[in-house]
Amino acid sequence: MFLENSQNFQSFETLRVPDANLVLRHPRDLYAHDRLFISAFEGSPEFILSEFVDIESRLFTFGMKREADLDVNMFTACAGALAHASTISYVDPERARIVFEAYCEVLPFRISSYQRHLWTTLDNLRFISRDPSRRKSSVPIDLNPDIYAKPLPANVSPSEVMLPEFEPIVWTQRAHFLHPPGE
Q1: Whether the Cβ atoms of residue 30 and residue 46 lie closer than 8 Å to each other
Q2: Is 50 helix (H, G, I), strand (E, B) or coil?
């Protein structure tokens, strides 16, 4: 096949492949059909045309993004896409769970201690599904917690969630995780 020998190209810059909207793009601008990317970019043209999925692995040489190489910039694009999608329409909580799982389980191994400041760049991206219940601890029967709570969207940012032990203090301003870390 033409991708097996990169000498067929004058440079890596000459290769173009069709995205999901049939627009020719460089592979470095596209994402592999990996679980995280499918969840984050569902319905968007960020992938190679489905008829060409079988050549994806050959496009990694040309810079196609894959989950195995996840870094903060790729994750920011994923979280941003999911956050944007949730402002337009309903986003299945399973999609948000998969993105949040990468945030909890993969990203910590990709950010070194001297790059800790990068975590703050994610603080305001709303990619975490929240539990619709604002108060888990006992509430008097005649009290509607929603009256006192700050309105929050279905997906919230890392700075808008709380750990259960802090609920008595911050329940009016923060949300519970729909899927707590490690679940």
Answers
A1: yes
A2: helix
For tokens 């909890």, name the residue. 104
On the question of pLDDT at 46 being above 60, the answer is: yes
Q: Which two tokens stand for residue 98?
A: 């998969």
Rounded to 5 degrees, φ, ψ at 19 are: -85, -175
pLDDT at 2: 45
Q: Report whether 39 contacts 29 (CB < 8 A).
A: no
Predicted model pTM: 0.85
Could you tell me if residue 43 is left (phi over 0), alpha (psi between -120 and 50 degrees) or otherwise beta? left
Output DSSP code: residue 144.
-
Is the Cβ–Cβ distance between 177 and 131 less than 8 Å?
Answer: yes
Q: Which two tokens stand for residue 115?
A: 């790059």
37 pLDDT exceeds 50?
yes
Location of structure tokens 């911050």? 170
